[in-house]
Amino acid sequence: PKCELDFKATANNPIDYRYDPRSVAMGDFNNDTWLDIAVVNYAANNVAIYFGYDNGTVASPVKYSTGIDSAPYMIAVGDFDNDHRLDVAIANFGTNSVVVLLRFQNGSFANQTVLSVAPSRPVWVHVADLNNDAALDIVTVNYGTHSISVFFGYGDGSFSIPNSYSTGYDSFPSAVVSGDFNSDKQMDLAITNYGTNNVGIMLGNGNGNFANQITFSTGPHSHPYSIAVGHLNEDAILDIAIAHSGNNSV
User: Fold this and answer.
1) What is the pLDDT of residues 30-48, one digit of tens each?
2) How far is CA 232 from the centre of its chain?
3) Taking the complete model, does pTM exceed 0.85, yes or no?
4) Which residue of 120, 147, 190, 228 has the smallest Cβ count within 10 Å?
């Protein structure tokens, strides 16, 4: 049957055009049961938190600096210190780092923890438990060094030094997601390689280590840019959807 979707516009909360927003994430940041919005502003070097109300509107933003010349590019949400409150991780393209902001009970965020990935120019950050220790880990996609980096979380808001994996010469990776792609109950990684027109699969062994990537072509001049995973055909095997900026297709 055909799915009929009908969306109703709500009041706008405009972002100053000079802020150059790059990424948005959602979560209940103040434990009021309503979803809130977090936006990273590339030109303004900050993250803006919009607290949601029960009528679909949001409050004026509360802003937190991501650092001078940080140029934040991507944001992800997770509970990094196991206090049942959502925290945020932000990839800073300008300062070659990830900043982690831990949340207090009232919805405000603590001073940032900075994780260096210099000189990698990170453009994507992904959160998942990659080594089966019940603590969230962080993966960055490093456009400038053609690699990804994995930071293992300790469950208290701190992280290990990164393990890095090459995505190939001139690959210019742009995005990463995690999932069990070979049905071994371990988390694997899928990376879109913008420069080499392929998606790379790195199989995990369960302790946080990953095999060299196996690549699958996305087509000449496709320039894959973004990726998502899910069950698309009811066979219990994860499928992948990729947005191609080069030929305007999925």
Assistant:
1) 999 999 999 999 999 999 9
2) 22
3) yes
4) 228
